[in-house]
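The protein record quoted for completeness.
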Amino acid sequence: MSHKSLNSNQRIIIIMGIAAAAVYLGFKYILPLFVPFLLAWAIAWVLRPAVSFLRKRLRIPTAIGGAVMLVLLLAGAGTGLFYLGRMLITQLTELAGNLPEYEELWYEQVQGICAGGDRILKLPSGTVRQVVEENMQLVMETVQDEVVPALSRQSVSVALGMVEGIGTMIIILVAILLIVKDMDTYREKMQQAPFYQSVRQITGRLSEAGAAYLRTQGILMLIIACICTVGLLIIKNKYALVFGIGIAVLDAFPALGSGLILVPWAIIRLLSKDWFEAAVLATTFAACQLVREFLEPRLLGNRIGIPAIGTMMAMYVGVRIFGLFGFFLGPLGLIILVTIYRYLREG
């Protein structure tokens, strides 16, 4: 290895170490401060073509056109969220009211499974059921002693969070109007900034890969939620929408997937000799798997260039470091580092 090559490799290692630290610190401490303004910029970017059309064709000032389009966007999104939220609340309320009935049904199913376990393992009758009941009792005691008091202590924090959320929404709305009004000016100033071309090369690749990843996950979650909801509607489940959305969220996690819910559910219905419901659930699971296996590579293509195991590792590390949002931040952080590395190697 030549001295020049060694220096080049050392330089890349140092820069990548600094970049990794910057990504961590940025996601941990800086990103939360700028999330409202990033959302505002994204929404303003979506509204910009319509605002430009109103200005050029109808001679409507940019500020007024931005306000009109923002009101229309909020009205459309608010209407959709209202009806979707009402359906979700209705189903959740009904589910909560019927929990005792489902608890009894679940207990009967568990009894049957435990009895089968005794027969298969050739144990005295009631042995498996006793083990299950002891563990369930331990779980219930843990919930009563730790989870419920913790939720009660968080009530004040939830109320303060709601007030903070309303304030943040007002800031986002005002920021959207300001960005729409002066977006062209901002772009011109950024283009005149030093190091614009170098930064643009990195951000261009990053935006392509990051947008492809987020768009792919969003599309897949929407399609899988629809598939699961339709499947549950076929078996006349009262909570098809709630369960459909929940299964779609689980399916986005490689380590979990829709099979975490659908496969045990199908097995239980199969043991109960409900052939039709078991077949629908199994078909729904198969459809979810086929959609993800068929669409994900085609939607992502080679724009990310990260193997599946790398994405899974990034999700795991992201969730461990950043919590639930690490599911998205982990892969995005990996995309940033890979993009910087490729830029350095090519440079």
